UniProtKB/TrEMBL annotation:
This is Aldo/keto reductase. Pfam families: Aldo_ket_red. Residues 18-272 form the NADP-dependent oxidoreductase domain. The record marks K77 as: Lowers pKa of active site Tyr. It comes from the Bacteria. InterPro entries: AKR, Aldo/ket_reductase_CS, NAD(P)_OxRdtase_dom_sf, NADP_OxRdtase_dom.
């Protein structure tokens, strides 16, 4: 069994493929071609978002792949700037319409705060009540069956606790940036303790880890590429990696992960800053 055939199981019983194709920063037609190629070469999981501007093309690629709908897992996201119940409800309807896939496998709140203040937030705005309202809309769609699983993205522990204090349905996923040199052990530990699957986007740091001499040395030891080491690094931590590529060669190579990284080597990779 290859990694493309393996799954994690969310706390509601839904199975999610262990490796997904990321489409962040993929132009619409590039996203279509990459998704179609990936699906025709063993991938069954693709990650998109309303703000990526490529939902329509991702949905078209899924339909054109010839795969049964139930055999493809599609994730999308409510934009970070939409923080009311009504806006969230409209986002869900928009995603269903643009993807045109009958239902959504997983939908996330893209970020706990609007992107303009995600990294610099001088007024320390929390958006706690607003996120609960967005979550209420996701819960309703989940209960109605138009979304099979719901979760969040870029949430820290306090953001997660805020949702969990008021929710009827606990988040199933938290998608965060996670790669060698940029880890988040506090969030990872909290999510594991609460049965929330962590997904890691940008596992190769949007290409910045290419050429890293320390990782190159490790890649040589295992006779693998730097991206393969970076992606496997997440899997060793039970994090679901979402590598993005529009190149057929790399889409295939990114899934060749039939090896394990030894514990001492994981500790070494953990030490890289």
């Amino acid at each position: 069994m290859t990694i493309l055939e393996e799954t994690f199981t969310l706390h509601n019983g839904v199975k999610i493929p262990k490796l997904g194709l990321g489409t962040w920063q993929s132009a619409p037609e590039d996203a279509y071609k990459a998704t179609l190629f990936a699906l025709k070469n063993g991938y069954t999981h693709v990650d998109t978002a309303i703000v990526y501007g490529n939902e329509t093309e991702v949905g078209r690629a899924v339909r054109d792949s010839g795969l049964k709908r139930e055999n493809v897992f599609v994730t999308t996201k409510v934009p970070a700037e939409r923080k009311t119940y009504q806006e969230a409800k409209e986002s869900i309807e928009q995603a269903l319409r643009e993807l045109d896939l009958e239902y959504i496998d997983l939908m996330l709140i893209h970020a706990p705060r609007p992107w303009a203040i995600m990294h610099e937030n001088p007024e320390n705005l929390k958006y706690f009540e607003e996120n609960r309202e967005v979550w209420r809309a996701l819960e309703e769609a989940y209960e109605a069956g138009s979304i099979k699983a719901i979760g969040v993205s870029n949430f820290d522990v306090k953001d997660l606790e805020n949702i969990m204090e008021a929710c009827k349905v606990k988040p199933m996923v938290n998608q965060i940036i996670y790669h060698i040199g940029k880890t988040n052990p506090e969030v990872l530990e909290f999510c594991k303790a609460n049965d929330i699957l962590v997904e890691g986007y940008s596992p190769i740091a949007t290409g910045r880890l290419l050429g890293n001499e320390q990782i190159e040395k490790m890649a040589s030891k295992y006779d693998k590429s730097i991206p393969q080491i970076c992606i496997r690094y997440l899997l060793e931590k039970d994090i679901l990696p979402l590598p993005k590529s529009v190149h057929e060669k790399y889409i295939i190579e990114n899934a060749k992960l039939d090896f394990e990284i030894e514990l001492e080597d994981m500790e070494y990779l953990d030490s890289i800053q």
